[in-house]
C-alpha cells in the first residue's frame, strides 16, 4: 500500500520537475549553470590530487 502511494508521489514530483525543465527561462538558466558547475567539479578534483 505504502509503495503504491510513494510511486504516485514520485510520478507527480517528476511531472512537476519536467514542467519546470521545459520552461524556457529554466532551460536558459541550466545552460548557463552547467559549465559553471563543471568548472567547480574540475577544481575540486584537482584540489584532491
TrEMBL record:
Protein name, UniProt field: Uncharacterized protein
